[in-house]
């Protein structure tokens, strides 16, 4: 791996991630018990998520890719010439590649992610395929303030937040994130964001409880990760995956339910479970086109264009910073 690329990476919030043990103990001693979905993504978890995106029931990634592929020329009109495209939580570069192909005047691409490994690899490949594009990765927790690379400072900024990742935030935190993104991107900025839409509960439930059991594995891997990293003794066969659409709150909830009364040791602590007691591991909020626009308007943005897929399952929404 090219050492100069590693050296060129910007490190922000270096302490991020060190609170795993503290977060896990706090969550497992809370009532009801909970764990943050951000801990799903160790190496195994990231691979399992990739497998989820290929499941027949998990329409989100396919729909968003279809929108980006079909509507890229339309979307590209919102990227000013010689602008910097800032991706919040980049992971694989498959989606941004569709935008770059349609908008050759983008001068810089700034992927922001907590995991440096993926960033370095994708940056190398993008530089190879787009020799005139400045690829400026930033290692940071994108929910926290971070500084943009100096090389992109004079350029107008466009944010890209695909994947319905915003669905993991509580609505109040989603609003705070949108405000934060506006401050980070600056005056005149545009934000392109992927939103999973409210739809029939049977479709939503299937997407998060697939027949092949990949999402169950993904959920249970959180316990395996705690066993590996925090000297715990969760018996994975003694917990089961639960996922259901909570229509009152417009969110999918994922839980891990204890199949029996049991005692687990984590980090030298004893955690007791009642039979049927759950650990709440994820919320994935769904929006209507109208409810998301209202959220954006209340967070300093003006909706300027939106592209749904033909089935109306998913929405790519363009926002302009409102106070400029
Ligand atoms: C990565 C947060 C968009 O909420 O659909 C997939 C994660 N969880 N299956 C989602 C996830 C279970 C996913 N996001």
Let me know the average pLDDT: 92
Low-confidence stretches: 1-17
Order of helices and strands: HEHEHHEHEHEEEHEHHEEEEEHEE
Portion in beta strands: 25-35%
Helix count?
10
Q: Give the ligands present.
A: N,N,N-trimethyl-histidine
Distance between the termini: 42 Å
* Biggest β-sheet description: 9 strands, mixed
**Percent helix:** 25-40%
Judged by helices, strands and strand pairing, the structural class is alpha/beta
SSE diagram, text form:
Elements: H1 3-8, E1 10-11, H2 20-28, E2 33-34, H3 43-53, H4 59-76, E3 84-88, H5 94-102, E4 108-113, H6 116-129, E5 134-135, E6 138-139, E7 157-161, H7 171-185, E8 190-196, H8 201-208, H9 214-230, E9 239-246, E10 251-258, E11 262-266, E12 269-273, E13 278-285, H10 289-297, E14 301-308, E15 314-321
Parallel strand pairs: 1-6, 2-13, 3-4, 3-7, 4-5, 4-6, 7-8
Antiparallel strand pairs: 8-15, 9-10, 10-13, 11-12, 14-15
Helix pairs in contact: 3-9, 4-5
